[in-house]
Amino acid sequence: MMPARRKLFVGAVIILLGLVFAAYNGARSSMVYYLTTTEFAGRPELRAARVRIAGRVQEGSVLKSGGESRFVITDGTTGYNVRFRGPLPDLFAEGKDVLVEGRLDGDGILLASQVISTHPVEYKEKHPGR
Amino acid sequence: MIEALFFTVAVLIAAYLLAPAFQSLELPAADTRDALDAAGDAALRALHDLDLDWQTGKLSERDYRAARATLEAEASEIFRQLAEPGAGQ
Amino acid sequence: MVNFVGEIGRFALLAGLVVALFGIAATTLGLTRRHGGYLASGRRAVTVWALLMALASAALLTAFLSRDFSVRFVAMASESTQPLLQTIMAFWGGHDGALLLWALILAGYMVVAVWSLRSHPDLQGPATATLLVVAAFFSVLLAGASNPFAPLVPPPPDGQGLNPLLRNPWMSAHPPMLYLGFVGMSVPFALAVAALITGRLDDTWVALSRRWIVVPWIFLTLGLLLGAKWSYEVLGWGGYWAWDPVENAAFMPWLTATAFLHSIQIQERRGMLVAWNVALILLTFGLTIFGTFLVRSGVLSSVHAFAKAPLIGYLFLGFLSALLLVSFGLLAWRWGALKSGGTVESVISRETAFLANNLLFVTAAIVVLVGTMFPVLTEAFRGVKINVGPPYFNTVMVPISIGILLLMGIGPLLPWRLATREQLARNFTLPSAAAVLGALMLGLLGVRHAGALLVFAGALFVSGTIVLETVRGTRVRIRRGEHAPLALARLFMRNRRRYGGYVVHFGVLLMLVGVAASSAFDTQAGATLRPGERFGVGRYTIEYGGLRHSELPGIDVTEASVRVWAGARFLGSYSPQRYFYRAQEQPMHHVAIRSSLREDLYLILSEWTPDGGGTIRVLVHPLVSWLWAGGVVAVLGAAFAVLPERRRRAS
Q: From the CB coordinates, do chains A and C have 3 or more pairs under 8 Å?
């Protein structure tokens, strides 16, 4: 007979290993690289990875047709064409900051699964007293 | 004008804060009687809980008797110490 | 009258900093020189600091109500057209005001805590000093980088207005509740530090910390619930929890505090786990400070962690490290004196259940912490930010939740020390049978989702044990000649902690059932319709009646009229809306929700065309209302459990 303390220890280790394994799998399957457009262009090894790209919607680039939207995301130096099916977020507009999550296809077009508008929850001091 | 007001308030606060520092109040001697008191409370609670556990059928009679005896001994030791004059000093 | 209010506010905050520092010095001197007069000075500093924070808060409120836009914070968080409630809410609608509210709440807790410790003079001194250190830290922020009274020259004609996202009644209560929870954790922290300094981690400390952690636990629970409710009604995506860093920041201290509430019972009963319990309290407080840092510094939201983090982020980080270093240092220093009184004698015992509970809760906290900090960690080690999404959290939290659910049923029925086989059979046969039968029935009714079935069966099992405990306890009293209703009432009143705990457990299991059902069985659909057209979602038929445009001060409102049937039964007309805040150029959802015990019908107006067509999205979430109801039950149960009990008499 093992003493109770040792049994508890063994049980705890088994539970922990199971949970660590679950966490590892969960993390692997939901990992998203978070980069700016220029950084993404500079990391060819991430071409096939799921990415979340931060940038701005380029002025005059938005095209909507039949539930699909196309636009260019840019940080001023590097831009990517984006294709997205689904409703764009409320704050989406040309010239505004945006996050695009998805993967590159063979032609270098970013197929977005999610488009997120980033806006400060708190007001910045850009226009004090507007 | 407002500066004068702030100055007055600051002086009053300083006086209020510093006043007790000039009294030589004795520190109360370290007293662990409150711990004995709390231990007594905990022991009585444990007995009460044990009785309820027994009455609602969570324990065998043998385990109940054994646990009850231990807890009673612990509790009476605590109350004996509490009854001593100068306990916890 | 030029910025009179602002000057009073700045004076109060500056004086507050000086008073807090003086208080720390006086209390420390009093403790080292064993001088009661200095200690009394330190206690007075607590009172004065509290009054100064109240003065500053009154000044800020006055500035808001008189629309004094020469105060920058007022100009940033309010505008002249804003209604009264929103103007008051603007107090904590921005960073600087939120910190002042934080300080005000801390002031309240400090006054009560220091006063109530007068019967434990040796703990009172060190606890006062610790609380004053926390107070001084917030005073530094408020008097400096985050001063809500910073002037704005020249004063603008009107303010920017409160962030539209925060203009919701739930937001009037969510931040204060959350802060009451966060800030309240300073008191058990101060008690733990005091107990470590004096070496008195005895039964007094156990009783005091238990009481002082339940109160903020209740507020933190309420804060989390209100935040979820706000997210559900305002963000317009149909969910209430997204594993967002802001949510995680509030959830982590809740997890460790809950672990403490359970493990402290082992110390109370068996004298075990003393060091562990202290560590849990230190950790809980550390996580509240860390959470505030996460939310306030913007470390996680920007692409690059520390590139844009403002000074305040570094201040928080420095304070947090110093705090953890000193408090865990104290713990290490006392390590030798923290001998555990007993040991686990049998695997099948109440002790094991509590240990398993702690393992799961603390692991959950670590999992959430790692997931939240993943981008920061990967940026530090691999040079690129990697986020992990909800699947990471869900794959771990689902098994942990199911484990915790089962423990809620098993733990309370196990006796301390060891259980015998006959007792186990006697206690668990009925609840297990209920669970198995229930699961079979649900399976036959077509519930095929394994995780959800497990949760439902577990919930039946736990309810079974709670009912059994209540019935047996009542019967004991009936046998003594009490009438049934009286016996039930007395059973609860005379065993507040035990039965209050069961009520909390019951609330939690309602919440888990609500979460499981609404995430496993949600349906959604959307359609772009012409006025008069219909479409079906599940058992509902939705008819789009057209659009109406109107105006509120500063807001363009677009409203769709929607009629809903379930089968042939007409359920009513609903009007999901979209607001457009002109000054902020920000659109906002005002969803329409038809809530019932069975399911929520969630209607969103997502887009429209100039010729009157509209896109309506419909989500059907089963049992969401169970989540809110369960939360209320859990909070009431905890409040009942912490009410003072009648003193037991020795006999």
A: yes
Average pLDDT, chain B: 84
The mean pLDDT value for A12-34 works out to 90
pLDDT at C637: 96
A32: region left, alpha or beta (phi > 0 left; psi from -120 to 50 alpha): beta
Q: Do residue C534 and residue C590 come from a single domain?
A: yes
Residue type (1 letter), B81: Q
Domain boundary among C392, C409, C430: C392
Chains A and B touch, contact meaning at least 3 pairs of CB atoms under 8 angstroms apart? no
CA distance A12 to chain C (A): 7
* Residues pairing with A32 in the sheet: C387
Q: What residues of B are in contact with residue C22 (Cβ under 8 Å)?
A: 17
Residues C376/A29, Cβ–Cβ less than 8 Å = no
The answer to whether the CB atoms of A129 and C75 lie below 8 A apart is yes
Contact between residue C255 and residue C288 where contact means Cβ atoms under 8 Å apart: no
Is C78 among the domain residues? yes
Residue range C494-526, pLDDT digits in tens: 899 999 999 999 999 999 999 999 989 988 888
- C647: contact with B, CB 8 A cutoff: yes
User: Is C596 within a domain?
Assistant: yes
User: How many domains would you assign to chain C?
Assistant: 4
Boundaries of domain holding C358: 168-328+346-392
pLDDT band at A127 (very low <50, low <70, confident <90, very high): very low
C338: in domain: no
Give the pLDDT score at C645: 72
B77 touching C, CB under 8 A?
Answer: no
SS3 state of residue A46: helix
Task: Examine the pLDDT at A122 and tell me if it is beyond 50.
Answer: no
The confidence score (pLDDT) of residue A105 equals: 87
Q: Give the pLDDT confidence score for residue C197 in this predicted structure.
A: 92
Of C163, C392, C607, the CB nearest to A30: C392
Distance from CA of C274 to the nearest CA of B (A): 15
Query: What average pLDDT does this structure show over A101-123?
Result: 77
Do C305 and C322 reside in the same domain of the chain? Answer: yes
What ipTM score was computed for the predicted complex, to two decimals?
0.88
Interface of A with C in 29-88 (CB under 8 A): 29-36, 39, 43, 52, 54, 87
CB within 8 Å of chain C, chain B residues 25-54:
25-28, 30-32, 34-35, 37-42, 44-46, 48-50, 52-53
**Which CATH class name applies to A32-117?**
mainly beta
CA atoms within 13 A on the CB side of A78: 12
pLDDT at B86 exceeding the cut of 70: no
pTM for this model (two decimals): 0.92
Burial C522-548 (b: 16+ CB within 10 A, else e): beeebbbbeeeeebebeebbbbbbbbe
CB C212 within 8 A of CB C181: no
pLDDT at A2 over 80: no
Q: Is the pLDDT confidence value at B89 over 50?
A: no
Of B25, B48, B55, the CB nearest to C37: B25
In the predicted model, residues of chain C with pLDDT beneath 70 are 1-3, 298-310, 340-341, 646-651
Query: Using an 8 Å Cβ cutoff, are C453 and C441 in contact?
Result: no
Residue C649 lies in a domain: no
Tell me, yes or no, whether chains C and B touch by having 3 or more C-beta pairs under 8 A: yes
Which residues from chain C sit within 8 angstroms of residue A19, using beta carbons?
363, 367, 396, 399-400
- Are C278 and C358 within one domain? yes
Residues C191 and C231: their CA atoms lie apart, in Å, by: 35
Give how far C462 is from chain A: nearest CA, Å: 22
String of DSSP letters for C388-444 = E-HHHHHHHHHHHHHHHHHHHHHGGGSPSS---HHHHHHHHHHHHHHHHHHHHHHHH
A-C Cβ pairs (cutoff 8 Å, strict): 123
CB proximity C234 to B under 8 Å: no
Return the residue of A nearest to C371 by Cα.
A27
Summarize the confidence of residues B67-75 as an average pLDDT.
90
Q: Please report the pLDDT score of residue C643 as a whole number.
A: 85
